[in-house]
């Protein structure tokens, strides 16, 4: 709230906006959301009112998640772990992190894409990116879903609309040299994270954690996994190989072919692709903090189930993951469990049966609006 107070006092240079937690490192929509909360909570002093607002945000997000699960024909028992996470309750109701708003945007985008509202889905995903850069982990998947679902021209225009959205949101901060400060702070890809706060790589030494080779290795692994998923799963509605996909979408798709491809972008394909992309990014992240569980907790039961897991498999892995994220501060054991469970879920996303094998009720899977 100290950062918001500087914004309300007229400061527009991102490099100058700071507070007890450090400099402002989030995009513009984060500032606008917390400015609204600043006024709604008596300049940040009415914590109870803030918790009530975030309780409503939690219930709304959970309702959207339930709706996404319903559209893929998930069994009712799979809904149980979605509402039981103590860490998720802490993130939303106690810590009041901006990740909560970004998570709502992510799942709302998934829901809209499941309903074949391609432009709206991309736009809402862009709103989430305006709150926190973590949403960028889903960018490859969202781009491929929108491109194959809506066609080349509409896919490109959706991407342009997201860029314009961010330019509009950033306008108050773009005057003169301040513009460079804004993009450098809000989208800082070279940000350094402290070893003492890491949840996922505690079991490696501080020297390894801070080394350039470790960072480059994770980046190369991230790229390799994305390419593997693109080739094996994410372009299958339109192409057999990546080279064929590039030829098809660099040129113009024949009239009528785009409609046939679009019909293969089912609600299940959307969930598989977007959640798989986010999970890959989480696995390859150099440092995860506790609030990052917001992007993970509600994806886990689905990914474990999609690979053919029954109640025992899903609930045991869910419980192990929940435990590993509740340990504070993280330990060698807890961080090993965090990375292991992330790796398990990435593998589950890769080996899940083809979407054609999933046949949810026609009133859900076949509904397009």
Short key terms for the protein model shown above:
two-stranded antiparallel sheet; disordered C terminus; 19 helices; mainly alpha; 63% helix; 369 residues; single chain; dol-P-Man:Man(5)GlcNAc(2)-PP-Dol alpha-1,3-mannosyltransferase activity
Description:
This protein has 369 residues and is mainly α. It has one domain. The protein contains 19 helices and 2 strands. Strands 1-2 form a two-stranded antiparallel sheet. Strand 1 and strand 2 form a beta hairpin. The longest helix has 25 residues, at 47-71. It is globular, with a radius of gyration of 21 Å. Mean pLDDT is 91; it is low at 359-369.
- The number of distinct helices, counting runs of at least 4 residues, comes to 19
In the predicted model, the low-confidence regions spanning at least 5 consecutive residues are 359-369
What is the end-to-end distance? 40 Å
Strand order of the largest sheet: 1-2
| Helix content, binned percent | 55-70%
Subcellular location: Endoplasmic reticulum membrane
Pathway: Protein modification; protein glycosylation
Keywords: Endoplasmic reticulum, Glycosyltransferase, Membrane, Transferase, Transmembrane, Transmembrane helix
GO molecular function: dol-P-Man:Man(5)GlcNAc(2)-PP-Dol alpha-1,3-mannosyltransferase activity
Q: What's the layout of helices and strands?
A:
Layout: H1 2-8, E1 18-19, E2 22-23, H2 28-40, H3 47-71, H4 86-95, H5 99-114, H6 118-129, H7 139-150, H8 152-170, H9 178-186, H10 206-209, H11 212-234, H12 242-250, H13 257-263, H14 267-283, H15 293-296, H16 300-306, H17 311-326, H18 332-351, H19 362-365
Antiparallel strand pairs: 1-2
Helix pairs in contact: 1-2, 3-4, 3-5, 5-6, 5-14, 6-7, 6-8, 7-8, 7-14, 11-14, 14-18, 16-17, 16-18, 17-18
Keywords: Endoplasmic reticulum, Glycosyltransferase, Membrane, Transferase, Transmembrane, Transmembrane helix
Transmembrane segments: 21-41, 47-69, 90-110, 122-147, 159-183, 203-230
GO cellular component, one term: endoplasmic reticulum membrane
